Amino acid sequence: MSGRRIAYAYFDPKWDRMVHPIAQLVRAEVEPLDYQIMMKDHLICPQCYEPLIRVPTDPKLTVMADGKEALFRHLPSEAAPYCLLRSGTTIGKKYNNEEDAKKAIEDEDLIVISGFMQDRPENSLREDFDGENNPLETHYESKNGREVELPISRHNGQTFKLPSKITSVQSLCVNFRQNYYREIHIVDETGKVTKHLLCDSLKNTNDINGEVNSPGFYFGEIVSIDKHMNHTTIWLKMKNPRPFSDFRVRVWNKVAEPRRMVKGVAEGRILLFYSPIESVGSGYWTGKLNWGEIALLPAQYKDFLETDYSANKK
Fold first, then answer.
1. Model-wide pTM > 0.85
2. Residue 273 is inside which H or E element, if any?
3. Residue 3 domain-assigned?
4. Does 260 score more than 60 pLDDT?
């Protein structure tokens, strides 16, 4: 990415990585244009927890000399740990041992998924989170999956046996800004592992350029919804000029209705989904998506996603 890769930093004037555990970090989020001089030396990377600086350092300046918007950048350091936001390539963190990797899963810095829920969980009785309060717990959208082998050891050829979750796109949308920078490993039934960082992997449906056989993360703004006998067709907004004729997301009615993807309610909302992409006529669509493969992004994150995606497309 050539734009503003780090969309926000954590600000905590009391936290010291050399003294305090990560659990004690106060994760107050600050975007580059919200920067104040008293935040200097207290900005933390949301991915590797190393110090960040704001460029330009003067909070009154909102653009750099080359005309690009102000941004956060890592301090140069030969001893710094590997960071996906520093390197610009999603090759993944490496761990010294299985215990360190399991601790990363417990701390939610590493997400391991062995499947997305096909049916609505029996205890899913609450409405999807969509407010400004603290996000709801999402354990009801996840269940324990199988133990999987991941090649994330610092030693070449060694793998770790780690617990996984069968979960949902909805669980990634809650606490979306935090999950935006978390490392996600998806292991399919054959054992094939794909690595994701939402800030890199999440793609606007307007930016696809052909069929995609392997599932991936996509988003788009809903413009209209048609309900059929057993499924719902959701039409997504197209750029002007249109890159292709249309994009349709198909979802079973038993998923669309409790997920509030209904006419008169969801228009203008951002839809996230995990799916392959198929061509239909002069446009594209998805297969009929199940419970864990699709979600409405909470409205409070819409501007964040659209702004950051646009900045990093420049």
1. no
2. strand 270-280
3. no
4. yes
